Description:
binds calcium ion, globular, binds zinc ion, 5 domains, five-stranded mixed beta sheet, Beta Polymerase, domain 2, DNA polymerase, domain 1, 588 residues, alpha/beta, seven-stranded parallel beta sheet
Amino acid sequence: xxxxxxxxxxxxxxxxxxxxxxxxxxxxxxxxxxxxxxxxxxxxxxxxxxxxxxxxxxxxxxxxxxxxxxxxxxxxxxxxxxxxxxxxxxxxxxxxxxxxxxxxxxxxxxxxxxxxxxxxxxxxxxxxxxxxxxxxxxxxxxxxxxxxxxxxxxxxxxxxxxxxxxxxxxxxxxxxxxxxxxxxxxxxxxxxxxxxxxxxxxxxxxxxxxxxxxxxxxxxxxxxxxxxxxxxxxxxxxxxxxxxxxxxxxxxxxxxxxxxxxxxxxxxxxxxxxxxxxxxxxxxxxxxxxxxxxxxxxxxxxxxxxxxxxxxxxxxxxxxxxxxxxxxxxxxxxxxxxxxxxxxxxxxxxxxxxxxxxxxxxxxxxxxxxxxxxxxxxxxxxxxxxxxxxxxxxxxxxxxxxxxxxxxxxxxxxxxxxxxxxxxxxxxxxxxxxxxxxxxxxxxxxxxxxxxxxxxxxxxxxxxxxxxxxxxxxxxxxxxxxxxxxxxxxxxxxxxxxxxxxxxxxxxxxxxxxxxxxxxxxxxxxxxxxxxxxxxxxxxxxxxxxxxxxxxxxxxxxxxxxxxxxxxxxxxxxxxxxxxxxxxxxxx
Length: 588
Ligand code: DGT
Ligand code: CA
Ligand code: CA
Ligand code: ZN
């Protein structure tokens, strides 16, 4: 263990990402919860984690330049401000080390298995010494868990199912998290004199919802020591490989990053090759072969002569294709579409004119209605829907009939004096156990827009779950099905749903499906977006913001929709307000 003073010195000049600070607070809260600590303390850490993640500026920078200002951040008091300073200067937190002396840190990963909370994680540890997912799986297979008090054979089966549903091997990193690590790294790399170009390729550039690792491509002037600069990045925890033109590292926080350095003549070909996907690359290489060309990461070659390589567009051109957006490069028909001039013109963030799902302090949002409206106006949208929760979501205290009615009145008064932006009176209404809606028909009929979604009963078998959703869609007032599969990336699998039937029903009734832009939801996924469009279902992309800062999540949803081949005309909230409203009226 390094003494505190020298650790602080060793870290001078490094910066701690917001996501890293948030992760430490979350881990501490999880461990404290397992210990049975006071719920208010847990909530304080978790609220702080969220608020730090959403912060558009670096807490590290604030802690170093003006630590007093930390207390002004939402959810941060004096005590937490001190802890942030501690993390920034020492890289760790004494409180976390203390708790983890009593409880193995792995226990927090058990808590993430659906059906196991803090209490059960604790019971598994106390009763069977389990603190890793591997041990959990082994014990479940051996039938040892069913004998623990409060567990049974059914729980054991559930645990096995949940573990099987997780991707094998290491967890992939959310795109939004990878973005924070990747973009700062990129800025650092570009600052080295002699670096001509640097970009992140791989699945990140293809906008996949999660990434396995980041792949950075760079071109440099001769003799630029970029590999040395790359492995010298202060956030690097381990250098896994290093050669003259490439290296692989793991950053603190676990993200893995590959670097490839090329000369300028090859940069476009390298960018193309390392953007992938592999399946797409192989298909294009085959086209090249038919033309007598060799396509690799250094260029496109006829015999020994390089005929393209400097830019990506050149590479496409010599194999007879127009440039294909990275989001489409999955060998899912994009090459044929490119060849026949049928590539879609993909929707863009700038096309979005309104955001139709967000929460306020009336349910589980952290900003008031007025604050949300003001933030939406700053983004330049024309309209927004306030969609607070209905009563069934007791945890967050949704609005009841009277609550919604009062809110609608309030919105009418606001609309009367607002310019440039219109508020839709709306709600996110729970779909109850058998498909009934969690609000009376009369109030629903008065709303401008109704989103319905599932927040409970995730485990129903497919026929029952599908019937439940179809019944909800039968309701005359429903406009949008929110986060249709209920999945949370890396944490909760999608509900069992016959999506084809749901899509057909939605198309018949003119009900829209949501692409929820929360970076850990991104629900619908890319393949389902495309299926929906093919069936003729209209989509909306919504931030589902629970704070003003989260309105910016819209970009993740737009990326996801682009991966699903969505054009502007497939996304209803690209319509100007009048037309969007017409669309809602047409259904009533
Ligand atoms: P990831 O990291 O799992 O999220 O996915 P990618 O697509 O970033 O995959 P990665 O990091 O293994 O490799 C980056 C790109 O390099 C990949 O998308 C295509 C290219 N690539 C890697 N291996 C091969 C290969 O064996 N053949 C071809 N044609 N391309 C490859
Ligand atoms: Ca990668
Ligand atoms: Ca890689
Ligand atoms: Zn929801």
